[in-house]
Amino acid sequence: MLAGALLYCAAPLQAADWSISADMRERYQSFNHFNFNAVAGNDSREFGSRIYLKAEGDFGHGLGMFLQPQAVLIRRHSAAGSQYLSQADLLQAYVRYDVGHVSFRLGRQQLVYGDQRLLGHLDWKDVARAFDGIRGTYTAGPVSVDAFAVHPADLVAMTPDAVSPRGSSLVTWEDRTLAGIYGTYGHTPENGVDVYFINWRHGQQATTGKGRNLHTFGARLFGRKHGLDATAEVVFQRGAWESHVSQKASAYAFRAGYTFVFRDTRLGLEYDVSPGDDKTDPAIHKNFVFPFHTNHMHYGEMDFFSWANMRDLRLSLRTQPVAGLTLTVNVHFLALDKARGDWINVAGTGNVFAGAPGYTQTGAGTETDLKLVYSPAAIKGLKLVGLYGQFNPGDAVSERNAGRADIVRFGYLIARYIF
Question: Which residues contact 84 (CB under 8 A, 6 or more apart)?
Fold first, then answer.
């Protein structure tokens, strides 16, 4: 009888309908004068190879499984020497169950919401971001609501360097939790409103951010009609750190553009701002702190800024000069909101320059990013990407860098094939 029961339960698995694909990527990138000092220099080159395998199985009765193993090889060369990182692990591995208007995902998975200013997959890195836990989704007509309770997955993901030649983890799961609700109301995928609440907690055993208990809540309006598109997002953050320090921060983003029929050309304007912390009140922390964002796509490809103590006016152009080729140009006019505050890097966990009471300059500089993306019709699944970025420093760099404010350059080439 027991054997018969096991066979009955296994029957759906044996009859599973599987779909399998692979995603291969090669990336070369170079960095020049990322410390704004051409004399001292910190130039480097990096080669990254990545392969994802995806297997999705449908067992019927609403039950399914998603598996995404990955393998990565990173080679970095700089004046400090060469470092190599290789690894193979699971980026995603979860079981799903769908019944009526409700679905569940249990296991390692990615969280991607809105414009990814707060929660995203970080797929531009050689190793993307994932979480271990459970997520439930309710969908009915124009309403969709996600609820999740997860730990960040402990994946070795950052570029190796002289200090960490084997690379370092994006973030460890130890004593860290992320829980929240993300809801969307929209009659079409292109028009609606998002509202959300996210709690991010670090216990006393966490390696960084000990005693952190932060609540992030906000809303995002988005719409598209007759070539015009616009997005507005407002987010607030409250909570507490250890030593009785309170969190009080906010951030704002406004974006609009118009797409012409001629060569699918879009002209866009965006303004992003987050009030900074001038450090005059040690009992209140006023810099916005990120859950698990993808800032890279928003505030410049060179990653000098996150959505904290900053102002960014962006002018953008996207067009298709020939079939299969897309040209994008973004110009960022970047500034600090508070001169005395920290200049916070893309991850929001470190400083490009630490703040100080004597600083008066806020002009960070201008970043120009030019990107070409080519998808040849003759080779389905192939995408070629090239980018050149240049950062022209402003007075805030010279003031904080002993008078040095040299131009920074960044570039990469990517070949990606999905089959």
Answer: 73, 74, 75, 76, 160, 165
